[in-house]
């Protein structure tokens, strides 16, 4: 019903006016025959929402409402006496219409969505006139106003349970002398019990459970409640003791004071409750023993004394409670053995004695009765667990918890006979022997926990028979053998814990079929082989711990395994993958796979017949790789930053060592002395000593990934550059260091910075280099002003010189490893000299850790294969770096430039421009005067080929040199280039 004024609405509005206005309007549309009941109910209906049209039979045209749904009339007067609308999904407020129903004595609106304050005067009126009111399970709110019960009339039953009522229970309720049933449970009522509440001597049932009521339970006059059957004050904040005369309420069937703060011992009067079915005192502070007179509670079906401070023995007397079905004495301080007498309680179904201090054997009745649930956990029971061969429990038991006791011996194979067992927990005992294969007979089991015992042998294949298993825990035993393939039968398995055993073999691939798996712990075993890739299909995984095993090979990729914590895979010497920071041997074939033109010969680019089409083909692949590389770089940079912090801590110690000046070292010193050893490859070294500290901060030339460079002069006036290597990263032993440096010392080429000598002590290593006067190419490109910018010819010569230097290095089988413009120096005649080469060979191994120190500075020059997990560094990496350097020289732009909110990757930018036929627009704008644009474009193309994503597409340096020479001399190679 919307807000539209339907004819129905109009009529109702008229009715309301008719009912409540002082001037009575009578219109023709009104049916004069309507009685008050029809009017009242139509008004009631008009004010509520009836989304499912349950009140469709309520028709204003009818003479009588007696056939309407939910309406009951007195057969003689035909007046409405009862209104039952439970669970009609009605909502809204209760309107005045109901007041017209003068004969209404029963109102049930339970399980609807009625709201509003309970202060509504209509309710006051209803309470006055009715006998039964049920407003439970609605949304009534507010507090119950005190006067509401003053005129109680003949109210017999009031149920306000499950609403949102607050405040106190009005004292006025004590005036409802006819009241038999009070249910105010599950509200938010507070305060104490109403004064004189026990003067309501007609009470049969009082339920105030689940509120915030507090204070003591009044003792006076409680014995006058001779008709009381249900007494439920559970889940409140009541304190003090139980009324000692509570047992005088002889008809009590249900006594529930659970979850309060009650203290004291059990009042003796309780023994009179021979009709009582339920005694629930759980969750209080009751103390003392269970008295022998408890046997007189003959009708007891449920006894819950759990979570109290009861002490003493579990009395024999309980055996006389022949109706007992459920007995819970858990979490007390009961001692001694379980009485055999309980075997007489043939109706017993659930027993819980957990977490007491009980001792002795498990009595025969535990498996001899047809129990459904048995919990003996957390006691000091001893002996073997024996079920017998024909135990009645085989047919009935659903829950068996014997955990955390002192049980020993083997698990009987008859355990497989518990055909209905859902939960089996025998963990934390001293059980020995094997895991019985009969467990496969637990067809209904969802939990099996045998962890923390001393079980040996292997996990039986038959476990696959427990097809409904969700949780299997066998951790902390001495199990051997492998994980059975049959585990794949357990398709509901969510938890598998086998950690801390001696399990061997591989992890079965079929585990990946158990898609419900959430918690898997296989740690601390001897599992070997590799992790099945298919494991990444387990989409519900929360934990997958395989640490401390002997696994090898690559971690699965994707899904949970992308974010698996290191601690879950640690201590497996041969596992590899990015998570464990171990590259996998053989590396990733990805860059090769992405080769846009795989059939192209390795050296296809030799003649540089790089067609336009080919670039287009590769462009999307390049973008994809570029993006991936960029992300990977980000990850690496973060890792490096971390390592960097660590390194700098180490380093500070080394930096504190100052070099002790020229006097102290000469090449005649013994290598073993603390002073170290100086080796010069180029004749004699006479440092200017005394006058000049060798490593003078003022003479610092620059800093690189491998160390700091200082300028100093030899006695003959010649300058040298001394590189002080970062000690922590240069941990090679002296012999290796000697060998590698000597190899570098033999390399001589006009375009390579000459290594003149070195100095070695365990804590300080210096490389003595030729000094190149005009600074780095980087400085010339990016730090000079526009006036002295390099000309095209100079740039070309630098490129060519660099290429020649690099080609020579490669000829000598040395990988530069760190090509970038800061490592290309320019001498006074403008000749390029490549420096800092081969230093990587001085490092213990080319591992990631070592890479890390430089990647930051080399960002943008780094070949994409670095970003992959392989660290297979070949000359092709140098060629990539060279290609970027070429682009840098031609465009005058850094390999990676950070704009305000953008990152420009030089080679992507140039590639894009070339692709759009606008390569010339990339050429450095600072270049002045006449220069051959075509030559520039050819060099750009060469740079791009060198910077190919696919290593095999990059030419050799010798080829590069040839191509450059051809570019320089158009007569020979022009066609080939285009
Ligand atoms: C009561 O209303 C809530 C939302 O206002 C709705 O989700 C719920 O189903 C309703 N209950 C009944 C019994 O109609
Ligand atoms: C088995 O009982 C122990 C306590 O004795 C408990 O810690 C463990 O969680 C239980 N196992 C299962 C699967 O619930
Ligand atoms: C595994 O399941 C299959 C089919 O449900 C069944 O035939 C087989 O017996 C089961 N394996 C075990 C060990 O129970």
TrEMBL record:
Highest taxon above the source species: Eukaryota
GO terms of biological process kind: defense response; response to other organism
InterPro entries attached to this UniProt entry: At_inactive_RLKs, Kinase-like_dom_sf, Leu-rich_rpt, Leu-rich_rpt_typical-subtyp, LRR_dom_sf, LRR_N_plant-typ, LRR_R13L4/SHOC2-like, Prot_kinase_dom
Gene Ontology cellular-component annotations: plasma membrane
Location(s), subcellular: Cell membrane
Positions with a binding annotation for ATP: 724
Membrane topology category: Single-pass type I membrane protein
All copies of domain Protein kinase, residue ranges: 695-967
Coiled-coil stretches noted in the UniProt entry, renumbered to this chain: none
GO MF annotation terms: ATP binding; protein serine/threonine kinase activity
Transmembrane segments: 615-641
Keywords: ATP-binding, Cell membrane, Glycoprotein, Kinase, Leucine-rich repeat, Membrane, Nucleotide-binding, Receptor, Repeat, Signal, Transferase, Transmembrane, Transmembrane helix
Main location: membrane
Similarity-based family: Belongs to the RLP family.
PANTHER family, A to Z: OS05G0588300 PROTEIN, PROTEIN KINASE DOMAIN-CONTAINING PROTEIN
Official protein name in the record: Putative leucine-rich receptor-like protein kinase family protein
Species this chain originates from: Helianthus annuus (Common sunflower)
